[in-house]
Amino acid sequence: MTKHTVAVLGTGKMGELVLSGLLRSGWPADRLLATARRPARGAELAEKYGVAVVGNAEAAERAGILAVGVKPQDAGTLLGEIGPRVTADRLVVSLCAGLPTTFFAARLPEGTPVVRVMTNTPALVGQAMSAISAGVHATAEHVALAEELFRPLGSTVVLPEYQQDAVTALSGSGPAYFYLLAEAMIDAGVLLGLPRQVAHALIVQTAAGSAAMLRDSGEHPVKLREAVTSPAGTTIAAIRELENHGVRAALLDALEAARDRAREIANQAI
Ligand SMILES: NC(=O)C1=CN([C@@H]2O[C@H](COP(=O)(O)OP(=O)(O)OC[C@H]3O[C@@H](n4cnc5c(N)ncnc54)[C@H](O)[C@@H]3O)[C@@H](O)[C@H]2O)C=CC1
Ligand SMILES: O=C(O)[C@@H]1CCC=N1
């Protein structure tokens, strides 16, 4: 384990997931710092995790690894605050959707290494998918450090930075699509006359079981779906409706829209 201190700058939902994941993996609390915009949030984090909550400037001076957990729209302001305190021997890890590492490099001292990571909310249960990319000035050693930070949260993969907007559309936003599907299927259960709690239990276990098979069997999803789809049976009747409603085309369009929005965020960032 690295001897660095990690500071989470902007400890909202994702920042807290990084903090709690590191603590779960045995990272000492005295090598973690957190920053928060609202004092009440800072007090909550200090109480819950036993980490020091400090200002952004102090965190930037004390920590070797700076994990930026603010919304992309707030990153410019944050970098304006910390830029003068950062030295090029730090590692900056961006959690921000859309923003390229050049956005950070332009606001930090020359030579500061930046790694871009797109993780997702299943980090809360140790099941995140975190995609890590070496950005400006980042070496293999910096990428290895980032992998060490994100491994406690779930799976990690190292990809070139140009793929990050697509990753954001797939796995960053991905949990929301599955939740939407689950929500709609539970409502369908209610439509068919099942009590809501029963529909909820059926769909949650079906989702968990299907995900486990998809991951653990190593089979292609087509093969798994075909095994459920009996000739002249119930499943094919449902699938015909899904195809009639263009669900596949909707998914292609939806993920392309998410990718485009990531690009737009980068263009709008100041
Ligand atoms: N929510 C999600 O599922 C995912 C979010 N992301 C990215 O993670 C980042 C954080 O997203 P969330 O955690 O959802 O947002 P959030 O709004 O929960 O957290 C951001 C936090 O930063 C704080 N903040 C803003 N400016 C600050 C400043 N100058 N100093 C200190 N704290 C400051 C805010 O008060 C807030 O608590 C975003 O850049 C987002 O694109 C990435 C993957 C998934
Ligand atoms: O919706 C968003 O912009 C963030 C990034 C990926 C998931 N949530």
Give an overview in words.
NADPH binds at residue 56. It catalyses: L-proline + NADP(+) = (S)-1-pyrroline-5-carboxylate + NADPH + 2 H(+); L-proline + NAD(+) = (S)-1-pyrroline-5-carboxylate + NADH + 2 H(+). Catalyzes the reduction of 1-pyrroline-5-carboxylate (PCA) to L-proline. Its main location: cytoplasm. GO terms for molecular function: pyrroline-5-carboxylate reductase activity. By secondary structure, the protein is α/β, with parallel strands linked by helices. The protein folds into two domains: 6-164, NAD(P)-binding Rossmann-like Domain (Rossmann fold), CATH 3.40.50.720; 174-266, ProC C-terminal domain-like fold (Orthogonal Bundle), CATH 1.10.3730.10. It is 54% helix and 13% strand. The protein has twelve helices and eight strands. The protein has helices at 13-24, 39-49, 56-62, 72-82, 101-105, 140-150, 164-172, 174-191, 196-217, 221-228, 234-244, 247-268; strands spanning 6-9, 32-35, 52-53, 65-68, 91-94, 114-118, 128-134, 154-158. It has an eight-stranded mixed sheet with strand order 3-2-1-4-5-6-7-8, with helices on both faces. α7 (164-172) packs across α12 (247-268) and α8 (174-191) crosses α9 (196-217). The longest helix is centred in the last third of the chain and has 22 residues, at 196-217. The radius of gyration is 21 Å and the shape is elongated. The two termini are 36 Å apart. The model has no long low-confidence stretch (mean pLDDT 97). The chain binds 1,4-dihydronicotinamide adenine dinucleotide and (2S)-3,4-dihydro-2H-pyrrole-2-carboxylic acid (A1CAB).
